[in-house]
Design brief:
With 342 residues, the protein is an alpha/beta fold. Helix content is 28%, strand content 28%. It is built from eleven helices and 18 strands. The structure holds zinc ion (2 copies).
Amino acid sequence: MPTTMRAVVIANYGGALQFTHRPVPRPGPGEVLIQVRASGLCSTDLHLLSGRQPLGDLPRILGHELAGDVVELGTGVEHWRTGDRVTAAIDVTCGRCRHCLAGATQLCRTMRRIGFERDGGHADFVTVPAANLVAIDASISYAAAAILPDAIACMYHSLIRQGQVGIGQRILILGVGGLGIHGVQIARSAGAEVLATSRQPQRVALAEQYGAIGINTATESLEDAVARFTSGEGVDVVVDNIGNRASVVQGLKLLRPGGKFLVVAYLDETFEIASMPLFKTEQEIIGCRGSTKQDLIDVVRLVCSGQVTPVLGAAYRLEQIDDAVAHLESGDLVGRIWLTRD
Ligand SMILES: [Zn+2]
Ligand SMILES: [Zn+2]
């Protein structure tokens, strides 16, 4: 086992993600050491640079989407062996609070997340609690497995758990990025009809490839499209992957009475809403936070059975983090950026 490894860290808030070398961590009791084979780069990694979410002692290794092989077991770890192909649920939760006991681990108030409050997977190695591991079938590539915990499981949590999307429903997905394109597939797999928006033609085309009706909001009226799609009724569920005042105001307008508005994106802006329309329509505004380990297990099965295909974009090496970030920020990619371990 080497003593040092490559890593991508936040060394100070307000700076840039940095490539560096760090000591190889050792697994504590109940933890395993994973040799990371791929990790997904998320726009949240860039949001974290602002320091608005305190990460504890810096430097912090980022990377909340990872896949690799178990290479060492800490004391007390059962049911896992070295060589197992795995990914990991992001939230390391207490297991004792009322939310954890009810299975709503995404609400645990004392969680420490992989790649946030504890070191993550943008490195050659990472330690995670064995309780967070999910086995990956050999048919799923490491790159595809890496993006399951966030880009896919969070969409699954939003649509299926929070939105209770099902057969015959009509869904509007605002923003087809790294999450939205998987939202399209999950909603289609659940039997829903999907309208999906982007201002970029290649993303609209990709959404259509996966069974959505794509709307290019740079050139088409979304109001008209929803009116046609629903015969003027409004959609059953809106998934907001954009998260600004305009997307909320517009999304609520396009929702049918009794419909659900799913808040998925971080809202950096506040929005006002008049209480009378909400009273009259019984529309629901629902927060969607992350995913549970069970969501991740469900998603692995959906991918294995071919119902959902992980959509990967460009690959970069850890050393190329600057190029990877520039590509992510350019906004012109289709699919998830991932970091290889070549
Ligand atoms: Zn993320
Ligand atoms: Zn808890």
